[in-house]
Write a structure and sequence with these properties.
about 550 residues; Rossmann fold; 7-stranded parallel β-sheet; about 35% helix; binds glutamine; globular; 9-stranded mixed β-sheet; single chain; alpha/beta
Length: about 550
């Protein structure tokens, strides 16, 4: 029997609903249950693919090619369960599906309305594509009270009624602010937010209360009374040092036990959290440290590189070191800007990115890492910039550029117009839609014999997730090989270069895919583990 847990947020945004959902799923897994998490996003975009990282943070890509909310990254990292297309939906997607159905005449003359047509579509989504999961945890984006969230809350109200209490539960994540002038934690905003939910017809079953300090029993009692929630279901969610402590902290506060009691499930035996404890121990008590420069374009908002910073942390955990990230704005290296900021780092990483701004600065960072023998890791755009750098500075292809920035003499990086996915030929041209049309999701890649990448993966065939429109042109393989840069990974048909490396450099690798999306605390990605290992070696040299 699949049970449904709906998580709403109150008072303010950014309380970490995604992390809370992920931590709860991890606790249920530790109790032997199968859990899957989904996210309902009330904004109107069909998916976050066309949104600026500054608006929305990173776009997380699934194996099956969905461009999704970054919370799905937390879900995967905490549960080890790969997310799917059916794990994230937006208002835009729901409406476009309903409207398409209406255009096909499938509603047989009905007037299409929010209730029941939109709410039915939301309910159908929540109930779709379920295998034998014991729990589906459904997180609703935004904060209770947002206008665009209303159809989602209404759909979940109906669903709770249809499923019954034994199969559904509402968790409300809220903030208990500390007001310094009064020297007190305040529960009033939570009371209002729970009342707002009740106006919609949803009675919260459990309050997960974010606070920066212990919530006294008297305050928890007060919330239980005013919010009509059982006292043992008012759970403190106190700030912790590492996100990987969250499951342990929630368990200690009784979250998983309260959820089990709600559904009439056994609370004994205790879940085994030893794996989590070990990850936390390694994350909080490293034996050394390294410094990695991330030279990017959206460095002002670290959520734009969420999976990347997590993957670096996992690489640190694997090597027992703390990874200090130095966030550098690529544009600062342009127009005579100096590269001094890179002098003291143990590794340089140029991450994924779009558009021309900062590209020349990134190329300068590549030159620095290549000439100074500092470990270099180029991801997607960072690989493309590494290839341009070698083409211009070593292979003497002066006009080497990317058509992403407009016409250029030598199209070393060009628009992909045709590729094969699962035996089907995908075609694109300059006029294709921007949304959902990149080369997205998992693709196979064959690794070259005697390459560093092959020894890092310990395999010849790998699968990694992609999100790009441009690609290095195969015709530059030979001239680049003469300069010492090899194409050490290709698509199985040999048409698309997926990995470049410079064998004579201590560690210089560029990958066209996004390995950070598949790194997990219990399974750090081999590329990040090896990059950090190389950075540790580098740190011993300086
Ligand atoms: N803008 C580049 C492309 O579309 C790189 C994309 C990325 O880094 N994800 O190919």
């Amino acid at each position: 029997m699949t049970r449904f847990i709906f998580i709403t947020g109150g008072v303010v945004s950014s309380l970490g609903k995604g992390l809370s959902a992920a931590a709860l799923a991890a606790l249920l897994q530790a109790r032997g249950y199968k859990a899957r998490i989904r996210k309902l996003d009330p904004y109107i975009n069909v998916d976050p693919g066309t949104m600026s990282p500054y608006q929305h943070g990173e776009v997380y890509v699934t194996d099956d090619g969905a461009e999704t909310d970054l919370d799905l990254g937390h879900y995967e990292r905490f549960t080890g369960v790969s997310a799917r297309q059916s794990d994230n939906v937006t208002t835009g997607r729901i409406y476009s599906d309903v409207i398409a159905k209406e255009r096909r005449g499938e509603y047989l003359g009905a007037t299409i309305q929010v209730i029941p047509h939109i709410t039915d579509a939301i309910k159908a989504f929540v109930l779709s594509d379920i295998d034998d999961e014991d729990f589906i945890i459904c997180e609703i984006g935004g904060t209770v009270g947002d206008i665009e969230g209303l159809p989602f809350l209404e759909a979940l109200r109906q669903l709770g009624n249809e499923l019954g209490r034994e199969r559904s539960m509402y968790i409300h994540l809220t903030l208990i602010p500390y007001v310094a002038a009064a020297g007190e934690l305040k529960t009033k905003p939570t009371q209002h937010s729970v009342r707002e939910l009740r106006n919609i017809g949803i009675q919260a079953d459990l309050l997960l209360c974010r606070a920066d300090r212990d919530i006294p029993a008297s305050e928890r009692r007060k919330m239980a009374l005013f919010c009509n929630v059982r006292e043992e279901n008012v759970i403190s969610a106190i700030d912790v040092k590492s996100i990987y402590e969250v499951p342990i902290s929630y368990h200690e506060q009784g979250l998983d036990e309260a959820v089990c009691r709600h559904f009439g499930l056994d609370v004994e035996p205790e879940p085994d959290l030893s794996g989590w404890r070990e990850v936390v121990q390694r994350a909080l008590a490293p034996e050394g440290e390294v410094s990695i420069a991330i030279v990017g374009k959206y460095v002002g908002l670290q959520d734009a590189y969420k999976s990347l910073s997590e993957a670096l942390a996992h690489g640190g955990i694997a090597n027992n070191v703390k990874v200090n990230v130095k966030w550098l704005e690529a544009e600062a290296f342009e127009n005579g800007g100096t590269i001094e900021a890179l002098e003291d780092v143990d590794g340089v990483l140029v991450p994924g990115g779009f558009g021309e701004r900062g590209a020349e600065g990134k190329i300068k960072a590549v030159t620095f890492a290549r000439e100074r023998n500092v470990p270099y890791f180029g991801i997607c755009f960072g690989m493309q910039m590494a290839v341009l750098e070698s083409a211009r500075n070593l292979a003497d292809i002066k006009g080497a550029g990317s058509t992403e920035f407009g016409p250029c003499e030598e199209e070393v990086v060009g628009l992909m117009t045709e590729w094969v996915q699962d035996g089907i030929v995908e075609k694109r041209d300059e006029s294709s839609d921007k949304g959902g049309t990149m080369r997205l999701g998992a693709y196979a890649c064959v690794l070259g014999d005697n390459s560093r990448i092959k020894s890092i993966y310990g395999a010849t065939h790998i699968s990694e997730r992609h999100r790009h429109r441009y690609e290095v042109n195969m015709k530059y393989e030979a001239p680049l090989a003469k300069t010492g840069m090899i194409f050490s990974g290709k698509s199985p048909d040999g048409v698309l270069p997926e990995i470049v490396e410079i064998p004579d450099h201590p560690w210089f690798i560029g990958v066209q895919f996004h390995p950070e999306l598949k790194s997990r605390p219990f399974e750090p990605h081999p590329l990040f583990t090896d990059f950090i290992r190389a950075a540790v070696e580098q740190s011993r040299l300086v």
